[in-house]
TrEMBL record, chain A:
Residues 3-70 form the RNA polymerase sigma-70 region domain. This is RNA polymerase subunit sigma-70. GO terms for biological process: DNA-templated transcription initiation. The keyword Transcription applies.
From TrEMBL, chain B:
Keywords: Membrane, Transcription, Transcription regulation, Transmembrane, Transmembrane helix. The lineage of its organism: Bacteria, Bacillati, Actinomycetota, Actinomycetes, Kitasatosporales. Residues 75-103 are annotated as: Disordered. It comes from the Bacteria. This is Anti-sigma factor. Residues 88-103 have a biased composition (Basic residues). InterPro entries: Anti_sigma_zinc_sf. The chain crosses the membrane at residues 107-126.
Length: 167, 253
C-alpha cells in the first residue's frame, strides 16, 4: 500500500519521538493513517505538503496519547537525545527545504535552556506550567524561554525567505 | 481583567498558542482576538509554521516489522465488499491468514469520537481484502470513496501508484506514484476524466526520479469522474487509473 509505505517512516518517527514508546507509537501511527483517511477532505494542498499534513496529524495524536497516558510527559534523557538528533548536520536530511534547515540551525544556536523549553512545548506538547515544573523554574521564566526561542526561529526562517535578496 | 486580549498580550501568548499548549480559556480568548486582527493572525500563522518545521525535524524511523500490513488490514477491515466492486480476477494476492489479530490498544484521544476503524471496500490493499470480521460493530457509518491503481500508459503491467478520492463535497484527490520504469523528472499534470470524454485539470505537481505524492481539493462531485491521468509537460501520458466507487465503513466504539 503505497500511501502507507511512502509515509510510514515519517509518521512512525514522529510518533516514536513524542511517545518514547514503541507500542504506543505504533498505535498512534496506525491511527494517523486512519484519521488521514477519515479527514482527507480537510487537507488543503495550499497549506503544505501531504508530508507536513500527515506529520501534523501524527504529532497531535501523539501529544494527546501522551497527555492521556501519564503525568510525566517525557524522560529528561530522552529530551537531550532528541535535541541532539534534531540539531544534527543537515546532510542526513535529503528532504529538508531551506526553511527547515534554517530552523535546525537556529535551534542549534539557541541557549540550551531555551532549546529545552521549546522542545518540551513544541515537541512534547507540555504547557508552560509543565515546563516550569520540569525545569524547576518560575512560570514566567518558562514562558519567556518558549517565547524567546520561537522569536529566534521565526526570525531565522523569515530571513531565509528573503535571503538571496537581502544578504 | 476584561477578558479581552489586545495585540500586545497576543504577542506574549502567540508562541504558546501556535504550539498548541495554551489552556482552553486562554486559547479561546486568543482566538477571539485573531478573529478580528489580521496582523496577529499573520504573526500566529508564521509561528505555527515554525512549530510545524520544528516537528518536521524529528528523525524518520523504521516502523516495526509488519506495520504496513497491519495498517492496510486496519483500513480494509469490515470491507463488506459487494459484487461489482470487486477487483478484476487475478489482481488480489492471497495473503497469510492470521488466526489472532493483535488486540489493538486503543489510544485515548482528547475528544475521542474519532474513527476507530476504517475499511475500504473493493480495494485490493495487498493481502487485506479477504479478511472477514467476526463481529460487526455496534454502529457503523459509511461514506463513498473512489480508488484506482495507476498503471503505466500503454503497457499495462505492474502498478506504479494509487489514486484515492473522496467524492465530497468538497472533493479531494490524492495521488501516490512511483514510475520506476521511466524515472520521470519534472512537472506533471493530473487530469480527471469523465465517461463522456471530457476532463478536468485537477492540478500540477512535480515528480522526482519518477516519485511523487500529491493531493488537492477538487470542487464538485467526484463521482462523475471515471479515470485519472498523469501527463508530462510535453503531453506524454505517463500513467492512468480507472476509478472505482467503494465505501468507507467506519465503526464507532
Ligand atoms: Zn492583534
Amino acid at each position: 500500500m503505497l500511501f502507507v509505505r511512502r509515509f510510514q517512516h515519517r509518521v512512525f518517527g514522529v510518533a516514536r519521538a513524542v511517545t518514547g514508546d514503541q507500542q504506543l507509537a505504533e498505535d498512534v501511527a496506525q491511527q494517523t493513517f486512519e484519521r488521514a483517511w477519515r479527514h482527507a477532505q480537510i487537507y488543503d494542498s495550499r497549506r503544505g505538503s501531504v508530508m507536513t499534513w500527515l506529520t501534523s496529524i501524527a504529532h497531535n495524536l501523539a501529544v494527546d496519547a501522551v497527555r492521556a497516558r501519564r503525568t510525566e510527559p517525557m524522560a529528561p534523557e530522552d529530551l537531550e537525545d532528541l535535541l541532539d538528533a534534531v540539531t544534527e548536520t543537515p546532510e542526513r536530511w535529503a528532504l529538508a527545504d531551506e526553511a527547515s534547515a534554517q530552523v535546525r540551525a537556529a535551534l542549534a544556536r539557541l541557549p540550551r535552556e531555551q532549546a529545552r523549553a521549546l522542545m518540551m512545548a513544541g515537541i512534547y506538547g507540555m504547557t508552560a506550567r509543565q515546563v516550569a515544573d520540569a525545569e524547576r523554574i518560575p512560570l514566567g521564566t518558562a514562558k519567556t524561554r518558549i517565547r524567546t526561542a520561537m522569536a529566534k526561529l521565526r526570525t531565522a526562517t523569515a530571513s531565509a525567505k528573503r535571503g538571496d535578496h537581502v544578504r | 481583567m476584561s477578558g479581552d486580549v489586545d495585540c500586545e498580550q497576543l504577542r506574549e501568548i502567540g508562541p504558546e498558542l501556535a504550539l498548541g499548549v495554551l489552556s482552553g480559556w486562554e486559547r479561546a480568548e486568543a482566538v477571539a482576538h485573531l478573529d478580528r486582527c489580521a496582523d496577529c493572525r499573520e504573526y500566529v500563522r508564521q509561528l505555527t509554521q515554525v512549530g510545524d518545521r520544528l516537528v518536521g525535524l524529528l528523525p524518520d524511523r523504521e516502523p516495526p516489522p509488519g506495520f504496513e500490513t497491519r495498517v492496510a488490514r486496519g483500513l480494509a477491515r469490515r470491507a463488506g465488499v459487494s459484487e461489482g466492486q470487486r477487483r478484476a480476477p487475478g489482481r488480489s494476492r492471497p495473503g497469510p491468514h492470521r488466526g489472532a489479530r493483535r488486540p489493538r490498544v486503543r489510544v485515548a484521544v482528547v475528544g475521542a469520537t474519532l474513527a476507530v476503524a476504517v475499511g475500504f471496500a473493493g480495494w485490493a490493499i495487498g493481502t487485506a481484502v479477504e479478511e472477514v470480521v467476526a463481529s460487526p460493530p455496534a454502529t457503523e457509518q459509511s461514506e463513498p470513496v473512489m480508488v484506482g491503481d495507476m498503471t503505466p500508459a500503454g503497457r499495462g503491467g505492474q502498478d506504479v501508484g494509487e489514486v484515492y478520492a473522496h467524492p465530497g463535497p468538497p472533493g479531494w484527490v490524492f495521488v501516490s506514484v512511483a514510475l520506476t520504469g521511466s524515472r520521470h523528472d519534472g512537472p506533471v499534470t493530473c487530469y480527471l476524466d469523465r465517461p463522456d470524454g471530457t476532463s478536468l485539470r485537477a492540478g500540477d505537481f512535480t515528480l522526482r526520479d519518477g516519485h511523487g505524492n500529491w493531493g488537492v481539493a477538487v470542487p464538485g462531485d467526484l463521482t462523475r469522474y471515471s479515470a485519472a491521468r498523469l501527463v508530462s509537460s510535453d503531453g506524454t501520458v505517463l500513467a492512468t487509473a480507472q476509478l472505482q466507487k467503494a465505501q468507507v465503513t467506519t465503526s464507532q466504539a
